[in-house]
Amino acid sequence: MTLNFSHLQSIGWTNYFMQQLSAQLSFDELTALHSDEEPTNQPYAVFRITAIHRDRIEAIGELGSSNLISTDLLCPPEFRPTSLFLAVGDWVLAERAEEHWRIKLVVEPKSRLQRLSVDQPQLIAANLDYLWIVTSANQDFNLKRLQRYLALALEANIEPVVILTKSDLCSEAELEEYLAQLKKLNCHLIHAISTLEGTGLDTLKTYLNSGTSIALVGSSGVGKSSLLNALAGTQQEVAGIREDDDKGKHTTTARQLFFIDSADEKAHGKVAVIDTPGMRELQLFNSQQGIEETFADIHSLAQDCRFSDCHHEQEPGCKVREALENGTIDPSDFNNYQKLLKEDEHIKRRDLGSHAERKHQRSFSKMVKTMNKEIW
How does it assemble (predicted)? Predict the structure, then answer.
């Protein structure tokens, strides 16, 4: 009996991952993967990562939920091989190790969402179809922060969906003003909802197709967990979610992938959903293309400037300055566009310098060892 990949399809497995896995394995490994052994006796198994802890990795596969082991978890993060950097949502091939499953390789992902955290790249989620960017119709609303999230999604080639929650807290005129602001974003999927009144939820359910993977991002308290509970139809026992002191507020304390039923009852499939902790501060990482797509109108104008290295200040023939002067583009958007590009460039230069310094230190250490051998 071979691995039942059709079962994995209900939790997001596609032909893309099968092709990537086949390309990463030797002939003998592929043969073992498709052996006639019963599932409980097979030497290999495919899993999807559902949670990552300091001492273990939770995953789900054909045989159900399991705790996977990886010797690299014992190493400090800076010494772990990049091939085993994991994100919730990743697919992995594991090999049987007595009573455990040990991660052998990470299947090449189709997308990976990442940000900069404490000067280190941090993986948020992998293999997503949609990124739901959640904000609320109150004081949390911040267009510049939403532009950062949008750049994050576009850089990872993930379809962004902007969701405005708590629409019941504002008047109709206020709601229209919020939506007018959101329409300035380079995103054509924008929805206003209220989990309290149930408005807008049916529209969101159209995204819940069998095998689809979705992650939710946004600040704490914007209603991500309440939204998921409303779509699931029940108050789920989701690890990492606790009730806060504030009325109607949930706080997610850890990234975790879980499954809700797809909207198509006949399909009997699941939708993979990743709820993330609130990220009020979001620093982008290697996101130039995502930034340029987020501000596509400004970037397009910049391509028509007379000088290719135009800084859009006082240079003659600057199309961006012309657009600013005639009101075609918003000065606030332009300032944020420049700010994000400068941040991204600063991070690139810093990382390049750090890499050169580490290379120099390794060369120096090697030279010292050689000299010591010659002396002694």
Answer: Monomer. Associates with 30S ribosomal subunit, binds 16S rRNA.
Helix runs in the chain, H state only: 5-9, 15-24, 27-33, 143-155, 172-182, 201-205, 224-232, 288-294, 296-302, 319-325, 331-375
DSSP code, position 72: G
Number of separate helices (H) and strands (E) present in the chain: 11, 15
Q: pLDDT tens digit string along 103-130?
A: 989 999 999 998 876 667 778 899 999 9
What does the pLDDT look like over 284-322, one tens digit per residue? 878 899 999 999 999 999 999 999 889 998 899 999 999
Pairing of strands 159-165, 190-192: parallel
Q: Is 308 annotated as a binding residue?
A: no
**Cβ neighbours around 239 below 10 Å, total:** 13
Instruction: Tell me if 187 is assigned to a ligand binding site.
Output: no
Confidence of residue 241 (pLDDT cuts 50, 70, 90): very low
Is 170 annotated in a binding site? The answer is: no
Residue 226 is assigned to a ligand binding site: yes
Q: Is domain 112-275 annotated with CATH 3.40.50.300?
A: yes
Domain 5-106, CATH 2.40.50.140 — does that match? yes
| Number of residues assigned to the chain | 376
Distance CA 357, CA 273 (A): 40
Map out the domains of the chain as residue ranges. Answer: 5-106, 112-275, 295-366
Q: Which residue has the tokens 């993967």?
A: 33
Residue 71 annotated as lining a ligand binding site: no
